[in-house]
Design brief:
By secondary structure, the protein is of the alpha+beta class. It contains 17 helices and 12 strands. The N terminus is likely disordered.
Length: 448
């Protein structure tokens, strides 16, 4: 894990020195609109131009309204090297369950990183942020700076881009974002499988190694804090901040680092950090305390619910889904099982076929014969431990004859059972009398 610090530092400064030379890609001529607000199925990609925009009695120039998928705006480089501010506004669409996994974004194609971006709910907010230029230098150094701006389809959003270079910005709209679908399904799966996963040894090792790979520098800072017994408000706090910065920088530029230039360093880091993480997890062993396991389970379920909530821009629906899952898991299993049984009995009654006497006797004979054959096969196998069985029997010879194929009942037992069955039928049978015989019997009883 120690190799992560020079690795991330080299990646950071090496990446900062590079300048991408890609040019803006030409827009397509025909696209299919997925925006539910559009009435036409097929639209031609159109370039948007500034429109008069009046807000709070103030007129704002250079405002572009982009509400249809594929709309774009192109800007040439400034001849006077002055950074011009252009504002792009996206109008929201009504909330709908069919748009649960929809998403929108503005993607900017700019050859360099010389730009500033301001986000707000309206044009006035964006202009106010741009005027407060004294804080723009800090924003430009943040590691999560991106050229693709995620938008909520259900909220009005305005984005201001201030630069002196030429660029192209395009509106992208997805009716179903499959990445959001995957996050929702993963959250649901983790929630229901958490009681099993937190007790699984393989999951324990894979989670420990993954944390070691992703957060090794943070863990190294924590170990240094414990070793030197420093407070969080000392130099350790700055070390934590630097660790988080480097991790975030690496994460948001991972595509740039997966090139031939850095690939050997990435492979070396994965191998060394993975082996060290495995050794640490193996030394500590899986958790065995029931309370610790419960805390791990609840933490996993909490994270999974957060994933479900954050996997959709339709916040009321995603929040309701998470609450429904939480309430359903809080219901006792016995109560859910009882309700399920009652529903099945009332609405899904099984069709039971009654057997006739002949079918019953035939089935009893076949099943008895099958069970006896299975018993003979088991007694012949070494798993039955025949010598121990023989010592507990009254007639070991009869047991041996049964294994060799003799009937399980002797002729004397068959005759005794038949005689007992015949006598039982006679004793249990009701006497049948005529009316005169019943009267005579009653008079004899009275005399007695």
């Amino acid at each position: 894990m120690i190799i992560l610090i020079p690795f991330l530092v080299s990646l950071h400064f090496g990446h900062s020195a590079e300048v991408t030379s890609a040019q803006p890609s030409p827009a397509k001529t025909d696209i299919k609109s997925e925006n539910p607000g559009d009435k036409n199925d097929t639209l031609r990609t159109s370039q948007v131009f500034p429109t008069p925009w009046v807000e709070d009695g103030v007129s704002h120039p250079d405002v572009y309204k982009m509400g249809v998928k594929g709309q774009y705006a192109t800007f040439n480089a400034s001849t006077d090297q002055y950074e011009h501010l252009s504002i792009f506004c996206y109008p929201s669409v009504p909330l709908s369950i069919s748009l649960f996994w929809s998403s929108a974004s503005l993607k900017m194609d700019l050859p360099s990183n010389n730009y500033n971006v301001y986000l707000g709910p309206n044009v006035t907010t964006v202009v106010s942020l741009a005027q407060a230029s004294e804080s723009a230098w800090f924003y430009s150094q943040l590691p999560w700076r991106s050229k693709e701006f995620k938008l909520s389809p259900f909220e009005d959003t305005c984005i201001g881009v201030q630069t002196s270079e030429g660029y192209t910005i395009t509106l992208q709209w997805k009716h179903v974002n499959y990445m959001m679908v995957a996050v929702t399904m993963t959250g649901l799966a983790i929630f229901w499988m958490a009681p099993t996963l937190c007790r699984n040894t393989f999951f324990h090792y894979t989670t420990g190694i993954s944390l070691g790979l992703l957060m090794s520098i943070v863990l190294l800072t924590y170990l240094a804090q414990r070793r030197f017994k420093q407070s969080l408000f000392s130099w350790v706090g700055m070390a934590y901040s630097l660790s988080v910065y480097l991790l975030t920088r690496t994460w948001f530029n991972i595509k740039e680092y997966m090139t031939e230039q850095y690939f050997p360093l990435v492979v070396g880091y994965v191998l060394v950090a993975g082996i060290i993480s495995f050794a640490v997890v193996y030394r500590m062993g899986p958790p065995s305390n029931p309370r610790t396991i419960n805390l791990i389970q609840w933490s996993m379920q909490f994270v999974s619910l957060v994933m479900v909530v954050m996997s959709s821009y339709h916040q009321p629906a995603s929040l309701l889904l998470s609450l429904t899952i939480l309430l359903w898991s809080a219901i006792p299993a016995s109560l859910k099982s009882g309700v399920n049984t009652q529903i099945r009995k009332r609405f899904f009654k099984p069709q039971v076929k009654l057997l006739s006497e002949d079918e019953y006797n035939t089935q009893a004979h076949e099943e008895t014969k099958k069970a006896l054959e299975q018993l003979k096969s088991f007694c012949r196998s070494p798993d039955s431990k025949p010598w121990q069985t023989v010592t507990r029997l009254r007639s070991p010879g009869r047991f041996a004859e049964f294994i060799e194929g003799s009937p399980h009942l002797t002729e004397a037992e068959v005759m005794e059972y038949s005689h007992w069955d015949y006598n039982t039928d006679d004793e249990d049978g009701d006497d049948i009398y005529t009316d005169d015989e019943e009267a005579d019997a009653a008079s004899d009883d009275n005399r007695d």
